[in-house]
Structure formats: C-alpha cells, structure tokens
From TrEMBL:
Residues 17-138 form the Activator of Hsp90 ATPase homologue 1/2-like C-terminal domain. Belongs to the AHA1 family. Gene3D superfamilies: 3.30.530.20. It comes from Kitasatospora viridis. This is Uncharacterized protein YndB with AHSA1/START domain. It holds the Pfam family AHSA1. It comes from the Bacteria.
Length: 151
C-alpha cells in the first residue's frame, strides 16, 4: 500500500458539545459557514453529501458515515463524486469533540490523503472552514468573506 498523509488540527470553541455537533451535522448550519450543506441522517453506514448552497444539489464531496456518537465523535469517508465512497482508498475525516470547562476542544483529523499536494490542499481548506466555524459558533454569523477564497 502506498504511503498516505494525515492532517490534524485542534481548536477550542466557545460553545457546548451539542452546539458544535449541530454545526457539523445540520445542513442549514453548515451551509452558512462552510459554503456547502452537509446532508445525511448521520447514521453509521449512511451516505452523506457536501452539497453546494446554490440550489443545484451538486455534491462536491460524498462519503459514508463510519461512526456517529453525538455529540462526541463523527467519522466519515470523503471522496469525489466520481469515486466510490466505500473504496478502502477513500480518505477519512474524524471530528472528536471533548468538553473542556465551558469550551469544546475539537480535533479534526483527515487521514489517507494521497500525497503532499492533497495534504497541502486539506490544510488550507480545513484552516478556512474551522476559522469560519469558530466565528459562526461564537458570534452567530460567519466571517464577512469566504476564507477559502483567500490567495
């Protein structure tokens, strides 16, 4: 098997575990700060889609929910729409939520990235999304500009 890469990032959010869980799994909430709606019933084995918010219904990422333990842990595969989300080579994203006083420590781990370019793209994308998630949860509104569009 070829060597793969892993991206991991931990941040602290001024919100409760249930609020963070909802922000990760509610289609309307994700649409506000992520620019895509995460659509699923979030049951293990279910499909999830990362759908554009333009009303087209186009999913830019698809996957299978591998584990869901609200409000502590969510694990799913991530694949392009032309890939099989059950393919063992699909990358895997894990959200671990841990209460820390009045905060939540959120660790995002994106595993099985194919190469250094995919790792760099994941790092840039996750930095933008997680910054927007933090702002959204702590202020009630996303950042005024889409951070993933920054050069």
């Amino acid at each position: 098997m070829a060597e793969t890469h892993t991206f991991s990032y931990t941040l602290y959010l001024g919100a409760g575990p249930e609020q963070v869980w909802r922000a990760l799994t509610d289609a309307e909430a994700t649409g506000r700060y992520w620019g895509h709606r995460n659509v699923s019933d979030w049951q293990p084995g279910s499909r999830w889609e990362h759908q554009r918010t333009d009303g087209s219904g186009v999913a830019d990422v698809i996957g299978t929910v591998l584990e869901a333990r609200p409000p502590r842990r969510l694990v799913s595969t991530w694949a392009r729409p032309d890939q099989d989300p059950a393919d063992p080579a699909a990358s895997v994203v894990t959200f671990d939520l841990e209460p820390y006083h009045e905060l939540v420590r959120l660790t995002v781990t994106h595993e099985k990235l194919a190469d250094a370019a995919e790792l760099a793209a994941a790092a840039k994308g996750w930095a933008a999304v997680l910054s927007n998630l933090k702002t959204y949860l702590e202020t009630g509104r996303p950042l005024p500009h889409d951070p993933w569009l920054m050069p």
